[in-house]
Amino acid sequence: MEEQFILRVPPSVAERLDRLLSENENASSSEDKSLDLSFSEDGRSGTFVIGNDQFPASLLDLPCVVESYKTYDDSVLIKTADIGQMIMVRDAGDPAPDVVEYRHGLTPPMRDARKRRFRREPDLNPELVQRVLKDLVKINAGATAENVDILICYALLF
C-alpha cells in the first residue's frame, strides 16, 4: 500500500500547482518552485506554502473511506490506498472549519452523506445497557442473571 492524501485547494492555488507540476524546472517561475505543508502541534491546523504565499490548511476527516486505484496497463486496476482524511487549504480570509469531520465528502452525490445514507445510532437507555452488561458478566462467571425469563422451545424434526 502507498501513502496518499487528498489535497483540496482554492482555484487560484490549483492553477499555480498545475503550472508547477506540468512545466519542467527550467520553464517554471522561480517564485512558485517552493512547496511546503506544515501542521501545528494539534495536528489539525497548519500552513500550506507555495512560493512566497501562505495559506491556512486544516486536516478534516471524510464521512467514509475512499479507495484509491492505479493501473499500469489501462485494463487492470490495483487498489493502492484507503483514504479517510483530507487536507483542505483555504484562502487567507476564509474562516477555519469548526468541526473535525467534513460532512460533504468529495463529490456532489456525497453531500450530507452521513445524514442521508448511513443508519442513525439507536437511542439506548444507559441504565438498560448497564443492567445487561452486569448480567452478561454474571453469566460469563457461571452464575445466572436476575429477572430473566427462560423460554425453552423444542423442535421436532421428522
Biggest sheet details = 5 strands, mixed
Query: Would you identify the regions where 5 or more consecutive residues have pLDDT less than 50?
Result: none
How far is the N terminus from the C terminus?
54 Å
SS field, number of helical segments: 3
The assigned structural class equals alpha+beta
Strand content: 25-35%
Order of helices and strands: EHEEEEHH
Count of folded domains: 2
GO molecular function: RNA polymerase II general transcription initiation factor activity; translation initiation factor activity
Keywords: Initiation factor, Nucleus, Protein biosynthesis, Transcription, Transcription regulation
Main location: nucleus
Domain TAFII55 protein conserved region: 1-147
Task: Describe the protein's architecture and organization.
It is found in: Nucleus. This protein is of the alpha+beta class and 158 residues long. The protein has two domains: 6-117, no CATH class; 120-148. Helices cover 21% and strands 29% of the residues. The chain contains three helices and five strands; from the N terminus they run βαββββαα. It has a five-stranded mixed beta sheet. A hairpin with a 5-residue loop joins strand 2 and strand 3. It is elongated, with a radius of gyration of 26 Å. The model has no long low-confidence stretch (mean pLDDT 84).
